[in-house]
Amino acid sequence: MAMATSTFSPHALSLKPQLGPKPHRLHLAPFPRLHAHRRLAAAAGEAPVEAPPSPEAADPSPAASNGSAAPVAAKAKVKVEAVEAVASPKFQDSRWVNGTWDLSRFGSTGGAVDWDAVIDAEARRRKWLEDSPEASSSDDAVVFDTSIIPWWAWIKRFHLPEAEKLNGRAAMVGFFMAYFVDSLTGVGLVDQMGNFFCKTLLFVAVAGVLLVRKNEDIDNLKKLIDESTFYDKQWQSTWQDDSPSGPKK
Amino acid sequence: MTSLSSSAATARATFLPSSCRAAPAGGSRRSRLLVARASSSSPKLPAGRRLRVAVVGGGPAGGAAAEALAKGGVETVLIERKMDNCKPCGGAIPLCMVSEFDLPLDLIDRRVTKMKMISPSNVAVDIGRTLAPHEYIGMVRREVLDDYLRTRAQKAGAEVLNGLFLRYEEPKERNGTYTVHYNHYDSSSGKVGGEKRSFEVDAIVGADGANSRVAKDMGAGDYEYAIAFQERVKIPDDKMRYYEERAEMYVGDDVSPDFYGWVFPKCDHVAVGTGTVTHKADIKKFQAATRLRAKDKIEGGKIIRVEAHPIPEHPRPKRVSGRVTLVGDAAGYVTKCSGEGIYFAAKSGRMCAEAIVAGSANGTRLVDESDLRKYLAEFDRLYWPTYKVLDILQKVFYRSNAAREAFVEMCADDYVQRMTFDSYLYKRVVPGNPIEDIKLAVNTIGSLVRATALRREMKNLTL
User: Fold this and answer.
1) Helix H segments across B23-90?
2) How far apart are CA B201 and CA B291, in angstroms?
3) Which residues of chain B have a CB within 8 Å of the CB of A128?
4) Chain B within 8 Å of A153 (Cβ-Cβ)?
5) Measured CA distances, B185 to B39, B65, B155, B357 (Å)
6) Is B429 on the interface with A (CB under 8 A)?
7) How many CA atoms lie within 13 A of B158 on its CB side?
8) Is the dihedral angle over the CA atoms A14, A18, A23, A29 positive or is it negative?
9) Is B410 helix (H, G, I), strand (E, B) or coil?
């Protein structure tokens, strides 16, 4: 388990492998270790180091089970009609403390928080949960809120790498639109700025550059428009049999 | 349309006059058709004979319709297949239903004041902080509610039959009667199978749920439906305490790709379930995921009942044909996003009945299609915005796990909670505070952008 956890995190230095007793939750299922290792083996894409033979899985070792073997046995008996769910390994990271990221452990040398690492860690946690959803618990609530990461950290990470391309496109499109408008109407660049039609064109250009970044985006936008009117059509069909043109409202 | 409203609205002061505004401004062709069929020209029934209406189905829609019809002086027959039917249903009713339908408070088993929404990454938000002390979401048992409404209809003068509706026959001549065929179940003789009987009526209200036979007979067309799967789980008392006034909603791809998983408190147990439209075959998997997410809280519970039922996604293409119309689930009045239907069923039943009562001048005239269309127009006018908003919410926020994270973040906001509950509990759209609206829009876009950015990062990850 500890080995597997470390394969999942890239920050080998900041991650302290959890060697202590595991949380009980891991062992609520009849064969926790088996599940845990299978799942991890699949997730990590490599064989876990201490591969469990199945007999061991049926009888969890005391060190790992932390005294929860008795409830496991009891549970197995009532399993038939009781609500039971397959436990998967809980997300673990030394920086994840009490349902939030412990920002003090994300400090780079200067003492400032390394927000990039926080974003990395949260993406990892969400990916992990997507693959192996975890039971929600009110004692162990998740309080981390992505809004504590400042806006510039997001911009720096997600917008700046693309900004050059987008700005370049916008400038080119804008320049040629201005050129064509000028050549067709004779209105100069400065005068265009005071003109409503030209302002609209400018807006369309910027919005277009932002919305259509790849060719597939056009299809996606079309689909979105279809989807948004689909429900209206479903409602309106009542009114359409004797008045094909009449909208409902 | 104006020509119709001036002639008809005066004749029927009892019906909500605003319905005329709601009527679609269709082409001139249709207006002419409607005028030609307007009920002021429809024949008066012979003296001593009142308008007879069959209500098929004794759920909230049928019960409410039969009561309003009987009170309005219409001879009403309600057919219900199973009197103690315990329909699989969340059973949540908004506060306004209690007052609008004069429901006694002891029908309500649980008063939910805390809704917990849990995101894919297990961020939990308690919705309900903004509720006033007297506000709550009522949880009812359907067998109790249905029975109450039916009994009240019976007291108002409706005849309640225990039987299975089979089919109806169109009238032979223009203003003739419909023949309703049904299988009569006699509880006293204890005979199995029942006997085939039939009777004649002037109009039929189909309130027979998602698998409506009336809808099939009238060629109402199909709707998309979601399948909801629910397990009633009896959990130990100490765990039940947590759910005393709390309901939980789980969102996430694991729980349902396009709906939510829920834990709703019932009288002495909880209902754990989930639903989906797009991946019906995987419903068992989603149910297991829902159970897993609620794990500790329902651990050790015993499943006392497993149930599944279809939930309509949108109204049927045709909701009225001649003097036959649909209400409730049969018509398809279930909201997206929240999957709420009881209130709209009861309300549509009552509105339909009121339209019939008004159109028949308290049961003395024959009704026609235009009278039934008035109910549709009024219903659509009143509730279309609610349905549309919930559809948009579902499309935007149930799209992906990223969007769901943003949704839960958004629901943490007090302003959102107040608006949500106002519109849910009182079924009215309150204009919000513009400054708050802008703040909300900015925050929501921020949440969505952050969640989407994280999602992009997640795509590049391998664990």
Assistant:
1) 28-37, 60-71
2) 48
3) 463
4) no
5) 36, 22, 21, 29
6) no
7) 31
8) positive
9) helix
Q: What is this structure's pTM?
A: 0.76
Give dist(CA B334, CA B341) in Å, integer: 5
Q: What share of chain B is helix, strand, coil (3-state, %, to 5)?
A: 40, 25, 35
Tens digit of each residue's pLDDT (9 = 90 or more) over B88-101? 777 889 999 999 99
pLDDT in tens, B96-116: 999 999 999 999 988 999 889
Query: Distance between CA atoms of B275 and B280, rounded to whole angstroms?
Result: 8
A with B: how many residue pairs have Cβ under 8 Å apart?
Answer: 180
Per-residue pLDDT, A187: 84
Q: How far apart are CA B451 and CA B105, in angstroms?
A: 43
Contact by Cβ (8 Å): B263, B298: yes
Contact (CB<8Å) B317/A243? no
Q: Return d(Cα B336, Cα B398) in angstroms, integer.
A: 11
Across the range B188-215, mean pLDDT stands at 85
- d(CA B447, CA A146) in angstroms, rounded, equals 8
User: Does B279 contact A at CB distance below 8 Å?
Assistant: no
Number of residues written out for chain A: 249
CA-nearest of B223, B220, B224, B226 to B326 is: B220
The residues, any chain, with a CB within 8 Å of residue A173's CB and separated by 6 or more, are: A205, A208, A209
Label residue B24 left, alpha or beta by phi (over 0 means left) and psi (-120 to 50 means alpha): beta
Give contacts of A 27-86 with B, CB under 8 A: 28, 43-45, 78, 81-86
What's the mean pLDDT when you consider all of chain A?
69
Beta-carbon contacts of B2 under 8 Å, excluding residues fewer than 6 positions away, are none
- Please determine, for residue B315, whether its predicted confidence score (pLDDT) is greater than 80: yes
**pLDDT at position B311 over 60:** yes
* A238 has a chain B CB within 8 A of its CB: yes
* B26 with A144: Cβ contact below 8 A: no
- Between residues 359 and 388 of chain B, which touch chain A (CB distance below 8 Å)? 376, 380-381, 384, 387-388
Please report, in angstroms and rounded to a whole number, the separation of the first and last CA atoms in chain A. Answer: 61
Tokens 């075959």 found at: B281
Query: Would the CB atoms of B121 and A125 count as touching at under 8 Å?
Result: yes
Strands B52-56 and B203-206, how do they pair? Answer: parallel
